[in-house]
Design goal:
It is a single chain. The chain is mainly alpha-helical. About 70% of the residues lie in helices and about 5% in strands. A two-stranded antiparallel ribbon has the order 1-2.
Length: about 120
């Protein structure tokens, strides 16, 4: 099956059964052949053809790419917001003359002393 296609659940069983039958028949052909060179040639030349009905296709490659692009856009938005928040926190802490990481370490140490 071409990459990027997603099938409905009802089609997966039919497709899986068809592929399993084809693979079983192919395996029997290969095992019945005793000549090693003929086995290799048979393995190299064999393709399984499978017909998919249009109503069985849930997502085409274009649909999958659109979903991935949308998710990637959301990820970029989240990363941008995180970078802006980090920059804001750095600016606020710059007024006190301390680096962001130094304050974090001091807070950790203070928390550890409170626990002890």
């Amino acid at each position: 099956m071409p990459l990027g296609y997603q099938l409905h659940d009802s089609a997966r069983e039919r497709v899986g059964d068809s592929v399993a039958r084809s693979v079983r028949r192919f395996r029997e052909k290969v095992q019945s052949n005793t000549n090693g060179k003929k086995r290799k040639r048979l393995k190299a030349e064999t393709w399984i053809k499978l017909g998919i009905k249009p109503e069985e296709i849930k997502h085409t490659p274009n649909d999958v790419l659109a979903l991935l692009n949308r998710a990637n856009g959301n990820l970029h938005d989240t990363a941008d917001k995180s970078a802006e928040l980090y920059a804001e926190m750095r600016e606020r802490l710059a007024h006190s003359g301390k680096d962001f990481t130094e304050v974090g370490k001091r807070q950790q140490n203070r928390h550890l002393t409170q626990i002890q």
